[in-house]
Amino acid sequence: MPHLFSPLTIKDITLRNRIGVSPMCQYSAEDGMPNDWHYVHLGSRAVGGAGLVIVEATAVEPRGRISPEDLGIYTDKHIEPFKRITSFLKEHGAVPGIQLAHAGRKASTYSPWKEKEQSTAGVPNDQGGWDVVGPSEIPFSEGYKEPKELSIDEIKEIQENFRLATIRAREAGFEWMEFHGAHGYLAHSFYSPISNKRTDEYGGSFENRIRFFLETVRIMRKEWPENLPFTVRISSTDWVDDGWTIEDSIELAKRLKEEGVDLVDCSSGGNLPKAPIPVGAGYQNLFAEKIREQAGIPTAAVGLITQAMQADEIIRNEKADLVLLARELLRDPYWPLRAAETVHQKGALDIPVQYERGW
Ligand SMILES: Cc1cc2nc3c(=O)[nH]c(=O)nc-3n(C[C@H](O)[C@H](O)[C@H](O)COP(=O)(O)O)c2cc1C
């Protein structure tokens, strides 16, 4: 029976345990460049014992950043500073992952702490913002910019930028790829009927709405080494009757498996400003469980997993193959080291020699 501290092997990569750092925007970059903040933030979580550290949503083109302070990997200049981070993560036993993203109609917004002082979510173009794009001309919410509907040629250009970013991510030393297909960003806005009202081959039917996702994954998978894990994050449901559903996600996961996707990270929501989300302990776990069972693909569970026993139970009962933690790991980068003691696996994780006297 696997448990929280069992290694997980996917392709040629083995995670030392089933704990991953969920991608978390730090809103701390200039022109997409990682800096010392990212190095220390991500590095600490590798030292703390996570098996996998996934770098925040990293834009494949400047227009695809959520805020002007997001990370990006849209030029070759970005490769070197990421390499510094991946080397450190590997040195400390964590597998370095990256989430490649395009924010679509939810781009050009203020970082959370700047938004508090503003009257709109969207950053005006004369203050460092930019025009945003999406499947249709439907803004996410009041205060957000109205997206320009992408032409077919423009869709292809974005897919080419995903391809180039995938090559750069590999050159930067990443060993785990996550395509960001969740939270109302570009890929999700294509597959959800709420934001996609197109009448061409990228809109309308289920087949057409998932086309952007599948094509982009196919393009990226070709550039990503076969022996390294290629994963995706999806929003498993929009949480409304006329939106994307868990049944849609199961079908999508089956298609993704055929495209060579190795694991589905099962998040939810983000495409509607006021969805009735029943937030609570492990509220998205059921999606990871259903997709794993019904699409026959490994999954990651995420969302209000905060307790060691809770995380261990998910793995032991084979509800998911991996747990991803976000906010709990902001509070405590050493959570995995503490969790090992709680779940009766003391000794499963090496304490960094520099810290041994503290444990
Ligand atoms: C500060 C912060 C930044 C986040 N940035 C991202 C991101 O870049 N990409 C993403 O897919 N999710 C992002 N999320 C969502 C988390 O990855 C995670 O799915 C969510 O917080 C639920 O997990 P938790 O309850 O353990 O925090 C972010 C969450 C937080 C708190």
What does this structure look like?
The structure is a single chain. This protein is of the alpha/beta class and 359 residues long. It has a single domain (8-358), classed as TIM Barrel, CATH 3.20.20. It is 33% helix and 15% strand. The protein contains 12 helices and 13 strands. It has helices at 36-47, 79-91, 112-115, 152-171, 186-191, 206-209, 211-223, 246-258, 285-295, 308-316, 327-331, 335-342, and strands at residues 8-10, 13-15, 19-21, 52-59, 71-72, 95-101, 133-134, 148-149, 176-181, 230-235, 263-267, 299-302, 322-325. It has an 8-stranded parallel beta barrel, surrounded by 7 helices. The chain has a two-stranded antiparallel sheet with strand order 1-2. β11, α9 and β12 (299-302) form a beta-alpha-beta unit. The two termini are 28 Å apart. The mean pLDDT is 97. The structure holds flavin mononucleotide. Flavin mononucleotide (FMN) binds at residues 22-25, 56-57, 99, 180, 182-183, 233, 267, 302-305, 325-328. Its cofactor is FMN. InterPro entries: Aldolase_TIM (IPR013785), OxRdtase_FMN_N (IPR001155), YqjM-like (IPR044152). Residues 4-343 form the NADH:flavin oxidoreductase/NADH oxidase N-terminal domain.
Bound molecules: flavin mononucleotide
**Tally of strands:** 13
Cross-sheet strand order for the largest sheet: 3-4-6-9-10-11-12-13
Number of domains: 1
Topology as a string of helices (H) and strands (E): EEEHEEHEHEEHEHHHEHEHEHEHH
Structural class from helices and strands? Answer: alpha/beta
The level 1 CATH classification is: Alpha Beta
The CATH H-level homologous superfamily: Aldolase class I
Give the low-confidence spans.
none
Number of alpha- plus pi-helical segments: 12
- Span between N and C termini? 28 Å
